[in-house]
Fold this sequence. Notes:
The structure is a single chain. This protein is α+β, with helices and mostly antiparallel strands. The chain is built from 15 helices and 20 strands. The strands form 3 sheets. Strands 13, 14, 15, 16, 17, 18, 19 and 20 form an 8-stranded mixed beta sheet that branches. Strands 1, 2, 3, 4, 5, 6 and 7 form a 7-stranded antiparallel beta sheet that branches. Strands 9-8-12-11-10 form a 5-stranded antiparallel beta sheet. The longest helix has 72 residues. The protein is flat, with a radius of gyration of 43 Å.
Amino acid sequence: MTKQRLRFSGLFQKYFLVLYLAVVLPLATNGVSEAWFSYRDQRTTLDRLLALEAKSAAAKIQGFLDGITNQLGWLIQLPWTEEPDERRRIDALRLVRQVPAIVSLTLVDGAGRERLYVSRIGLNRVESRVNRSANEAVSGARSGQLWYGEVRYYRDSEPYLTVAMSGNRPSVGVVVAEVNLKLIWDVISAIKVGETGYAFVLDDPGRLIAHPDISLVLRGADEATLAPFRAIRDLIRRTGSDVATGQDGEGQAVTAAVAPVAGPDWTVVVEQPLSEAFRSIYAALWRTGGLLLAGAVFAGLLAYVLASRMTEPIRRLEEGTERIGAGHFEHRIHIGTGDEFQRLAESFNTMAAELAVSQERQERISKLKRFLAPQVAELVDRKGDDGVLEGRHTEVVVVFCDLRGFTPFSAKATPDEVMNVLSEYYEALGLIITKYAATLTSFSGDGLMLLLNAPVPIEEPALRALDMSVEMQQSVQRLIVRWSERDHRIGFGIGLAMGPATVGRIGYESRFDYTAIGTVVNLAARLCASAADGEILADVAIAEAVEGKRDIVTLGMRPIKGYDEELPVYGMPFEEPPHAG
């Protein structure tokens, strides 16, 4: 106890000194220089944010234009003929409907003649054959494949852009589109920098193309409206960088960033008032002063409280760890300090609970695996309930198998020899049953009953049951060879049938089994009883299900115990191991 107290006493002193040096001295030292560092960091962050927003907006606008040009490209894929092209007219109408920004489309053939004009606000024209070769948009597209005109204002309000695009071959012609740029407003209005920062777009002459206040855009080329926006853009250009500080139209100091939009030669400008941008710096100065004062006053008290509170939690953690390590998973460590010790205790408690759940889960799965396939047991545990085992009516494959001559053998053999034979027998069959995901419903002495396609459906249950039966015969026949060397006369037969049955669990609260009830169960049992050593007998449903997939042979009509009429029986041949001489 003395050593423990001395250890914690030394820890208290260490924590006191560390907290004092870590809290008081850094606050005092950094308080003087925080204004400069805060300004520098805030300015760097702001510049990056504005530049990122500008580039993001430019990329979105470029994507808007690229999307339109990509759509236009589909109209100039095939060469024109002298005949009217109804399909191209339908494609143009569909494009106008699908892209709201496109106001009109003009399609010009390789000779420069207008072949189609589609418009939202004017009359459509088909096969006017007017020569458009001298048109600025047509000649521009022919020389550069993609041509952007200058922004113009429809009725001196809404901004419009002419986009012309030519095909890879002169014969496919040119498509000219009039694009309403009001839809770019959605991109610009979504950009928010702080509370009052915003973005806008100017073309090369300095006309406003997009702004969160769409009324400013609708004023068209009004010089009084455009002058402040041009000024901030021209200021950034003169500085030679992407970000600069200036004044907006209201004389307010702002910081702004620009990004170009390739193709139409536009500029995206994002700006934010400096008063808002540096508001956090002033708040940081006040916080620094308060923290410095509070740190100087409470550092010693805080160190004392923390050091003294560490002793009891450490002791509880040590004791709890020992008990959980000893296997007492029900033990819980209760620490209410609200710090890392409490979280550590909660982690220990969570670990103990998970270990208890894991142990319970393993026990539950082990119990389920006594009569279910391992994957079925895992499924029941994973779902958290055993609803999959409830009674229902479904089609199943029932497999019965048992040893021939086992009763005479067990009557004359010693109990140890009988148990050795059964152990080898069940070990061989158990591996195969697990491999084929069969459900073992019951076994008695040397007989087994298996289900396939219940409780979990599987693909081709008849084929899987037949393959499983062949592998079971091959495995047991190898055992029979070894048994015959010990002078045991034992055989092995299998019967299987497919059909509807009622499946589910039966039993009582502390003991239940999963089984199937129905005619198909009786038939499979009778076929097994009729099977001689090395035989695999199947009913007609199995034969039909595997027809063309396995070489099953007909054995003709046979009398089956419990049935008034003879039934068709089928056999599955397999390669038997050589018997001992």
